Amino acid sequence: MALSCSTFIFAALSSILFSAPLSASQKVPNYTFMRNATVAPDISYYDYIVIGGGTAGCPLAATLSQNYSVLLLERGGSPYGNPNITNLAAFGAALSDTSPTSPAQRFISEDGVINSRARVLGGGSCLNAGFYTRASPQYAREAGWDGRAVNESYEWVEKVVAFEPEVKQWQSAVREGLLEIGVVPNNGFSYDHIGGTKVGGTIFDHQGFRHTAADLLQYANPSAITLLLHATVHRILFRVKDGSKPMAHGVVFRDSLGRKHKAYLNRHPKSEIILSAGALGSPQLLMLSGVGPRQHLRAHNISVTFDQPLVGQGMSDNPMNAIFVPSPQPVEISLIEVVGITSFGSYIEAASGENFAGGSPRDYGMFSPKIGQLSRVPPKERTPEAIAKATEAMQGLDQAAFRGGFILEKIMGPISSGHLELRTRDPNENPSVTFNYFQDPVDLERCVQGLSTVEKIIESKAFAPFRYPNMPLAMLLNMTANSPVNLLPKHTNSSLSLQQFCRDTVMTIWHYHGGCQVGKVVDRDYKVLGVDALRVIDGSTFNYSPGTNPQATVMMLGRYMGVQILTQRLPPTAAYQTQQ
C-alpha cells in the first residue's frame, strides 16, 4: 500500500506500544498495613517517618521496618488494579491522564519541555518504560558506596522486580545494527553497565505485567510499618534550641479530605525523618519547611529554619532525541530492551509498535500529544487546544500505517544544570524548574554524536528489513522534526544541522535529578547539612544520572541506605542478621 511520507512518520509515532492484548490478571499483594490517610489518627509516633512511597521510599521503608516502627507517607494512591499502570500494552495511558487523581502529575519546565512526576505508590517505576540496568562500578566508587553491599542490594531488588526480556525482531535488528557499526563488544544479557552493546533487564514480566518499587514492600514487616495513601506532607517540624542545630521531630500532613494530621518521632537520638519525595518533591518540601535560600523563603513568607542556598540547585534532566523509522513490515510492541553504551557519552536505545487492533484506543505511547513528552512548547502555545489539534490530526490516519518505531539517544550526565524554586506554598502545586538543556556545549556534542550513531544504525544492513529504501535519512529527520506532536517553531535546516535537530526535538526520558545533591545539601550518609535527624534518600541527591537508566540504582539506594542505617543503630550481630 502506498502511503505518504508524512502519514508514515505520524503512524510510527502513533502506534508504539498500544496494540497488544491485555493480560488477564496479575497477582495483587495483600498489604494489610496499607490504608487511606483519612483513617489516620490526629497524632501518632514512630521510629522513622519516610516521606514518599516512591522508587527509593518503598525499599527504604521495607528495610527499616525489619527492626523499627515506620510510617510511610505517599501522596498518591495504589498502583494495583490500575491496568494503565500494570499492563505494558497500556504504556503511556497513565502519562496521558491529566486529572487531579492521575498517577502522573504533569509539569512544564521553564525550558518549555513538558514533563511528568509520579503521584502513586511505587513512584516513577509505575510510569516509566521499564528498563532495568545497574550503575557502573565507577559510579558506586565515586558515590562512596560499599561495592559488596551495593551488589547485595541490587540482588535484593532484582529477586522481585527484574526480568530478562524476550528480544524479538525490531530490538534484535537494533542490537545487530549497533554491533555492525562498531558499538562493541556484544555483552549479551546483563544487568551490569558495560561498554558496548547489551540486552538489559526489564520490570515487565513475560506476561506483560509491570513490577514496581511498591512490590518491594512485600519485604516489609507488616506489624511494624504503616503505609498511608493520599497523605500529602505540608512541612517538616523542627525543634530549635539555642546554640544547637534545628532537629527534625515531626511532620504535618493532610489527607484527601483536607484534614490535618501530625506524626512525630519517638524520643530516641537515632530516630529520623527521611525525605524520599523525588527530585522535585524533596527540595520543594525542604523549602516549605524552612530549609533553603533565605531570600527565596522570605519572599514566600516562610520562616527560615536554616539558610541553605544550595537547596534546589543542580537540577538536571538528561535530554533525549529520537529518529522515527516507519517500517514496511509489522514489528513487535517493545519498550527499551537493548542499549548501546558508546565511548563518547551517549546511550542508544529503541522501542517499537505494531498495527492497532480494531477499535483500540489511540494514545500514541511515549509520543502522545496528550503526554506532550516530545514537545518543547513555547509559552503562548501551551494550550489544551493545541494538543487537541495535534491529536485530531493523528486520529485520521490510515490503520495500515500504524507500525514502526524509533531509535533514540540519551546523553550521559548531563553537564548542563539549572535550578528549582517555589511557585506557591502549596505542596500539591508544582515548583518552577529549569534544566537548561544543552547549555553546555559538551552535552550538545554528545547529542550530535549520538544521533550520528542512530543514523548509521538506520543505514546498517542489519536494519534494512525495517527501512523503506525510498526514504533517505534527510526525509526521516525532517518528518521527525515537523511531526504534529512537536509544537516547537520549525526550522527548515533541521535535517542539515544535527545541532539544530537536537535543540528542536529535545524531550525528556524522565531521568531528571538534583536539587539536594551530595556534598552540597546532604553529606555522604545523606544527612541534611545544618540540621539533625533528617536525611534525603532519592534521585534528588544525584550529581549525575546513574547508568543508562536510573531506576535500578534508585531502588538499590533505598535498600542500601536502609541497611546502612540499621547497621549504624544495631549491635553488630543483629546488624549482620538484618542484611541476610
Structure description:
It is a single chain. The chain is α/β, with parallel strands linked by helices and 580 residues long. The protein has a single domain (34-380, 397-579), classed as FAD/NAD(P)-binding domain, CATH 3.50.50. Helix content is 26%, strand content 20%. It has 15 helices and 26 strands. The strands form 7 sheets. It has a 7-stranded mixed beta sheet with strand order 8-9-20-21-22-19-25. α9 (294-299) links the parallel β16 (291-292) and β17. The longest helix has 19 residues, at 551-569. It is globular. The protein starts with a helix and ends with a helix. The model is unreliable at 1-24, 355-380, 397-401, 484-488 and 573-580 (pLDDT under 50). Residues 278-292 form the Glucose-methanol-choline oxidoreductase N-terminal domain. InterPro entries: FAD/NAD-bd_sf (IPR036188), GMC_Oxidoreductase-Related (IPR051871), GMC_OxRdtase (IPR012132), GMC_OxRdtase_N (IPR000172), GMC_OxRtase_C (IPR007867). FAD binds at residues 120, 233, 510-511, 539, 550-551. It comes from Vigna radiata var. radiata (Mung bean). This is Protein HOTHEAD.
